[in-house]
């Protein structure tokens, strides 16, 4: 089972995140994932660097670890053709080390730039457009596409990687899981193990059947939230930064970080543990790895808000021999 490390542009400046990437590779992580946002989920002390230039720097800083987004949303601000070109170029420069993840997005990436924030059904249709355009361009085709929302006019990529870039789709419900089954090399989810087993796996398999694909060839990745520290209160305090993501649903038309932070004040401290695992014991992290392996996941990706990220990365690295 692979281990992934999430590098959050919302929480740390880009230079600090490069240190986290280097630490993750040294600790034996297999993959690094990064957020691709315009606005963060918090206001006070937040950051929000641009993911695409950072990816090139992170890949150059490291030697072997796979690095990509989780997620890049093609709702309005990104045309799928531009996404395809960017990740094809990264893949050509760093063979076998890049992945791209598409999804239905959040308002905080679209509304600040003047784009609309449509309902989920519309965003899902745009996601399908994006998957079809990216696949066509990565296959070296001349893409003359008129979709539900996105279009191309005899578009072609003239720089392609020797090794295909994995295309992942992220989602937490069966409709997006079905899209992943039709188009993706991997499926990323935040959903708990039970929801994954009972709702998402059947939908993923249905989507794969629709496209005459083998669902067993689709990687399954779980993003798992954790805060780890020697002192429990320190670990719990660190969760506050992410309580905005508890107060605002992905479908909500909320995009102004001060407003998100204000809404987060309605989440009482005793409920912060619902965000993820809050622990002082690294054995709890190992148990989470084991639980997700048994559920059929191929990778667990840790979104850590631990007060000492380097210590968390090193501690999880000590578990790598147990995950192979």
From TrEMBL:
Molecular-function GO term, any one: oxidoreductase activity, acting on paired donors, with incorporation or reduction of molecular oxygen
Claim: Oxidoreductase is one of the keywords in the record: yes
SUPFAM superfamilies for the chain: Bacterial luciferase-like
Keywords, ordered alphabetically: Oxidoreductase
InterPro entries noted in UniProt: F420-G6PD/mer, F420_G6P_DH-rel, Luciferase-like_dom, Luciferase-like_sf
Domain Luciferase-like: 5-275
Alphabetized Gene3D superfamilies for the sequence: Luciferase-like domain (3.20.20.30)
Xref: PANTHER family: 5,10-METHYLENETETRAHYDROMETHANOPTERIN REDUCTASE, PTHR43244
Name of this protein: F420-dependent oxidoreductase, G6PDH family
């Amino acid at each position: 089972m692979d281990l992934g490390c999430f590098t959050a542009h919302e929480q740390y400046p880009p230079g600090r995140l490069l240190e986290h990437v280097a630490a993750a590779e040294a600790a034996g992580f297999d993959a690094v994932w990064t957020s691709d946002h315009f606005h963060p989920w918090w206001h006070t002390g937040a950051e929000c660097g641009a993911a695409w230039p950072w990816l090139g720097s992170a890949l150059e800083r490291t030697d072997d670890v796979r690095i990509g987004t989780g997620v890049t949303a093609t709702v309005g601000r990104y045309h799928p053709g531009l996404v395809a070109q960017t990740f094809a170029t990264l893949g050509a420069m760093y063979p076998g080390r890049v992945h791209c993840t598409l999804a239905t997005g959040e308002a905080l990436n679209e509304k600040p730039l003047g784009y609309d924030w449509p309902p989920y059904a519309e965003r899902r249709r745009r996601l399908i457009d994006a998957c079809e355009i990216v696949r066509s361009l990565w296959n070296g085709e001349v893409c003359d596409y008129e979709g539900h929302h996105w279009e191309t006019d005899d578009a072609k990529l003239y720089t392609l990687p020797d090794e295909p870039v994995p295309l992942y789709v992220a989602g937490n419900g069966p409709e997006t899981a079905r899209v992943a089954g039709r188009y993706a090399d991997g499926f990323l989810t935040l959903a708990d193990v039970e929801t994954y087993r009972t709702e998402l796996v059947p939908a993923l398999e249905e989507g794969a059947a629709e496209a005459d694909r083998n669902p067993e060839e689709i990687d399954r990745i779980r993003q798992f939230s954790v805060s780890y520290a020697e002192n429990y209160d320190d670990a719990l305090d660190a969760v506050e930064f992410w309580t905005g993501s508890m107060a605002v649903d992905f479908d909500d038309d909320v995009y102004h970080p001060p407003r998100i932070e204000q809404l987060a004040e309605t989440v009482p401290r005793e409920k912060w543990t619902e965000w993820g695992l809050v622990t002082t014991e690294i054995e709890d992290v190992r148990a989470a790895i084991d639980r997700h392996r048994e559920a059929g996941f191929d990778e667990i990706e840790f979104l850590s808000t631990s007060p000492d990220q380097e210590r968390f990365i090193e501690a999880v690295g000590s578990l790598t021999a147990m995950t192979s």
